[in-house]
Amino acid sequence: MIFQKEISITPLSRGFHIITDVITEVILSSGIMTGTAQVFILHTSASLTINENTDPTVLLDFESYFNQSVSENQDYYLHNYEGADDMPAHIKASLLGASVHFPISFGRPRLGTWQGIYLGEHRNDGGSRKIIITINGE
Amino acid sequence: MIFQKEISITPLSRGFHIITDVITEVILSSGIMTGTAQVFILHTSASLTINENTDPTVLLDFESYFNQSVSENQDYYLHNYEGADDMPAHIKASLLGASVHFPISFGRPRLGTWQGIYLGEHRNDGGSRKIIITINGE
Amino acid sequence: MIFQKEISITPLSRGFHIITDVITEVILSSGIMTGTAQVFILHTSASLTINENTDPTVLLDFESYFNQSVSENQDYYLHNYEGADDMPAHIKASLLGASVHFPISFGRPRLGTWQGIYLGEHRNDGGSRKIIITINGE
I need a labelling partner for A14 at 20 to 30 A (CA). Which of A93, C30, C54, C67 fits? Predict the structure, then answer.
């Protein structure tokens, strides 16, 4: 059995945001009890990853780390006409990835106790973001 | 329904290359209308990722970024007998990943407008590369 | 057909470890001949990735690279009360990812000749780790 749904995330500020609840809601609505979920973001300057779901300073440290690791205004950037945040956003999107995947068990996302789903918004003004959730299961 | 096909990519120069068309062709041939695609590269010194599909300077900036971020000839490298490009190639392969995954909708890859599939060739002379595409769907 | 199994990995030292054999054993037990495997770790300070399976120095170079690339004791870390290794562990977990995915062909993991499955233990004392393997196939 396949279930697929597109959702839209309202504009978020640059940085990392936990979106576990909205994804869980879609999964619960699918009626699939056991399987795999694929959560895919349709953009190249935002990302999805799974990390710590409790202490909000982890989200802030992620933003600091990736800003330091993928600097703006590098001399070697050729793709710079969409703003200083644009090329770093593309690189961050690939370092973190456009999708997350996790098991479904007993009709729910089977995440670890401390795991949540992060949306990384890497543009200063990224606008709303589209996500497609596809579940394979039974 | 499961569809699986192995393809071979002719040797590419070191750097990033868009391979969306060849992957799309395989997906169209599967006849699967809704589901998930897994595209997996059978190598540890090349990678797959999803990023911007229009401006070729993004591909060049990716190569520059990863060359700077994963330097050759680090003093601490122990695995260096296959050439200066080898250990960095392994690290880049894991930073970016051996697979990409995206939804299938209406019989086609459901990618965002600006998304393409990149093959990252991280060796100077990587030779041809094998990829397996597996689709779960209906 | 869906197959799902949870396994526990006994405590490993900080660094990278090849766990291909234990994953392969689960896949063989599933009886699924063709499909996709999802291997998911239920933690935010350990990771899964696919890389070179033969020379143990690659594992050591991975540990060196990620320690250098994601430094401990950065001034900007706010999340630091769980130890100097904690925030770097979270970042490494997202750079490498919480899951790996590969094809199943002829009832076996369809990995490249040189590919193995790595567990990255990013804490000094991470304890045992839980992994869920889910296979979609036929």
Answer: C67
